[in-house]
Amino acid sequence: MGKKACEEKISVECGHLMDILLEYNGEAVDLTEPLHYAVSNIICSLVYGSRFKYENPQFTNMVEKTKERIHLAGSPSVAVCDMFPWTKHWIKDREELLNIIDELKSENLKMIHHLKETLDPQMCRGFIDAFLAKQMALEKSGDKDSLYTEENLMSTVLALFIAGTDTTSTTLRWGLLLMAKYPHIQDKVREEINSVIGSRQVQTEDRKSLPFVDAVIHEIQRFGNIAPMAISHRTTQDIVFQGHFIKKGTIVWPLLTSILKDAAEWENPNSFYPEHFLDDNGKFRKRDAFLAFSAGRRTCPGESLARMELFIFFVSLLQRFRFTAPPGVRADDLDLTPVAGITLSPRPHQLCALPLSSAAFSINQSNE
Ligand code: HEM
């Protein structure tokens, strides 16, 4: 799927999210669920070729199960099991984790069967269609060793949901919380948006003309440090790394915190400081130590989608709403201590999304 089509799907979903925020009418709410639904629906659009209504129980159940799966994967006992696999039979959370994976598989199997029955290989609706069309073409040509198997399809689909939802929505939650905590930065973001693009719908090409916004989004990711240990890897051969011998088959966790919060790399490693990504002339400054998506051959394959989502959501939301602490809570008192897990997320909190004057219009285009 092309960049333009992705951008279109993100904008549509962002429109649905903003309609929900308008319904709250500035009341204090926990934004976790609407953000999660919106981001998850983008993956649905790309994978299945269609989005779901937020009230659809099949959708809400899948989102819930994916959330539970991520939560359990980050539980201390499952982490112990990942590090010492021989403990697996005693870990109850692991059993629950496997049950959830089974449930997610059976929901996806239903979706895949439906898509297979209605497949037109000339008109792929999403990733699953493209996979099935390729699988059919290879079968026809007599290819017996194809990697286009049902098993590979299922694990790729599950990986896209699991890796592509919580990461982006948690980053957005950090972003809005940080904007409410630091209103002067929020004002500066909005000033730049207003002067460069006004109230028209944002596009990814606008990033170049919005250096402060770009710096703020990078700093949200650096400060939020949402994937502190990335994911586990295993060495495929004996290797000496920085003077340490590591045996073939060793499980290795790349600790991204060590670089994202490295005092030798960042002027204010433990503060929210967008200037980390700005030069003296206020232009965006790329930093080699920005490894929020990790590095190397197993770096995050969803990086460009995630960057597009973060940019379009963040700009669209700040164009139309002011995010503040709930009545009676001072901005200073908003808590930035993360909840630890396999991802680092903000503590449960509420914010007010106050519609700005131009927020009366909705960019929502119904494609349900
Ligand atoms: C802000 C958003 C995101 C962040 C910070 C993030 C970060 C990461 C990190 C740190 C890894 C581990 C890489 C490693 O261990 O070297 C990873 C893996 C992965 N990410 Fe992302 N990610 C994000 C969004 C997404 C999205 C939107 C998708 C899918 C569309 C995605 C799909 C994946 C997949 C499939 C893997 C596993 C790759 C493998 O096993 O080789 N991610 N991500």
TrEMBL record:
<dbReference type="GO" id="GO:0016712">
    <property type="term" value="F:oxidoreductase activity, acting on paired donors, with incorporation or reduction of molecular oxygen, reduced flavin or flavoprotein as one donor, and incorporation of one atom of oxygen"/>
</dbReference>
<protein>
    <recommendedName>
        <fullName>Cytochrome P450 2K1-like</fullName>
    </recommendedName>
</protein>
<keyword id="KW-0256">Endoplasmic reticulum</keyword>
<dbReference type="InterPro" id="IPR002401">
    <property type="entry name" value="Cyt_P450_E_grp-I"/>
</dbReference>
<keyword id="KW-0503">Monooxygenase</keyword>
<keyword id="KW-0349">Heme</keyword>
<dbReference type="GO" id="GO:0006082">
    <property type="term" value="P:organic acid metabolic process"/>
</dbReference>
<dbReference type="Pfam" id="PF00067">
    <property type="entry name" value="p450"/>
</dbReference>
<dbReference type="InterPro" id="IPR017972">
    <property type="entry name" value="Cyt_P450_CS"/>
</dbReference>
<keyword id="KW-0560">Oxidoreductase</keyword>
<keyword id="KW-0472">Membrane</keyword>
<dbReference type="InterPro" id="IPR050182">
    <property type="entry name" value="Cytochrome_P450_fam2"/>
</dbReference>
<keyword id="KW-0492">Microsome</keyword>
<feature type="binding site" description="axial binding residue">
    <location>
        <position position="300"/>
    </location>
    <ligand>
        <name>heme</name>
    </ligand>
</feature>
<dbReference type="GO" id="GO:0005506">
    <property type="term" value="F:iron ion binding"/>
</dbReference>
<dbReference type="GO" id="GO:0006805">
    <property type="term" value="P:xenobiotic metabolic process"/>
</dbReference>
<keyword id="KW-0479">Metal-binding</keyword>
<dbReference type="GO" id="GO:0020037">
    <property type="term" value="F:heme binding"/>
</dbReference>
<dbReference type="InterPro" id="IPR036396">
    <property type="entry name" value="Cyt_P450_sf"/>
</dbReference>
<comment type="similarity">
    <text>Belongs to the cytochrome P450 family.</text>
</comment>
<dbReference type="InterPro" id="IPR001128">
    <property type="entry name" value="Cyt_P450"/>
</dbReference>
<keyword id="KW-0408">Iron</keyword>
<dbReference type="GO" id="GO:0005789">
    <property type="term" value="C:endoplasmic reticulum membrane"/>
</dbReference>
